[in-house]
User: Fold Type-4 uracil-DNA glycosylase from Alsobacter metallidurans.
Amino acid sequence: MNDLFSRGEPHDPTGVELASLEELYGLMADGEPPGPGVGRFVPGEGPAGAPILFVGEQPGDQEDVQGKPFVGPAGQLLDRALSDAGVPRGEAYVTNAVKRFHFTQRGKRRIHEKPSTSEIRKERWWLEKEIRLVGPRVVVALGATAVLALAGKPLPVTKARGPIRWPDERDGYVTVHPSYLLRLQDAGERRVAYEAFVGDLQRIGELARAGV
Assistant:
């Protein structure tokens, strides 16, 4: 069964009340040390109270190296698209469904490995707590892994793309992960996809402003 909710809500693994993102991240960082095929803990970043919170899949190679989310090629594309959409980057909080880079080592290269459903489910409680502590008006799923983490079940991004109501009754939006745009080889196809992504970000900004 693919529904994460059908197997019960993840329990509170801390047993303590967490009052801040710093406390949350401190516990998460201590919970699992990096090891073979698993990078270091990379927390979310942005202002608490940001009206928009973006959830990606997991940190990539550059995010693991720098210890910050969305600083690699996909993050740079997201920044450019936000600028083109007229959405101030300072109004956004960025994080990932899974907070560690999962990879296979091939020589000097680290090849991205998609996190498993069990890994996503294990981190769901932490993600939900993170969202509550940030307090955004709109929670955006960037790609299929983020959708699975937020919706509790797989939803095709192509069909779910657009506004959505998450199970916690928070307003949301589904769109592609910027890494999808980077993988497109045809320049014309990439341009059309980028324009559609900017259009999504414009609508996300409108939703966030409507919640004021």
In short: Strands lie at 38-41, 52-56, 92-96, 100-106, 109-112, 138-142, 162-165, 171-175. Residues 4-10 have pLDDT under 50 and may be disordered. The longest helix spans residues 187-210. The longest strand covers residues 100-106.
